[in-house]
Amino acid sequence: MKRHSSFLLLISLLFIEPYLFAWPAQGACRNPNIARDKPFIMNVAASGAIEIKWFGHSFFQITSSQGTRIITDPFGPMGFPMPEVWPHVVTVGREHGNHNNVGLAKGDPLILRGLKGGGEDWDQINVTFRDVLIYNVPVHQRGVPNYYSLKGSGFVFEMDGLCIFHSGDVSEPFNEDQLQLIGHVDILLQVIGGVYTIGPEGALKVIEQLKPKIVIPMHYWYNMGHLERFIDGPYYSRKLNTNTLTISKDTLPPDTEIIILKVYREGDL
Fold this sequence. Notes:
This protein is an alpha/beta fold and 269 residues long. The chain contains 5 helices and 16 strands. The strands form 3 sheets. The protein has an 8-stranded mixed β-sheet. Strand 6 and strand 7 (121-122) form a beta hairpin. Helix 4 (200-210) packs across helix 5. The longest helix has 20 residues, at 2-21.
């Protein structure tokens, strides 16, 4: 009986082992669009440090340990300094001048738009660029409160064993379909602006849904009252005197932490 059990164990390991050790760089996020093409169990490789830099509003630059630079929702003139950026990839979650100023990007980056047809319908983004997996999540944003809504996209970035989710101009907590598409989140870049997007109280519900380790609030302009309402909750928060955070899988906090990056104003850069 013992020999029979050992034989079954050996056969099981022969079948399971490739699933445990294949695709070592993947595994931080769960995207149903790709799940059927890859094994269910995947090992996450040791990660390097990534850098997240906030330029204001919804505009971030995310840099992997391999140097792949991604910018999100680059703004036009709206009171923030206009940085010089040389990204490899630009993501656009909403076709609006505060989010789609792709001409700001220097070089010849890949442009990924979450909407097609001039913003009339969602596009489906699911690409691997160098060492980063990128896919989008359809969201809605209020056009006029209680009257009509606009389409937009959040974006998931998987790099260095981390799953980073840029919420986009979402107006409500996520439904089950969206949660399944988003999957696991380590770092959440979350809108808290209110009025046209979800406000501080709704954003706290999003944290409950996604349970990220780090939350970086965005899209509140210089309205510090929104920020104070957001951090007046159950989560530990801290303010940095810089617009840049460097983090790795190994240095994530054990419990959810809100990190407020510095808001630069016109002329600061």
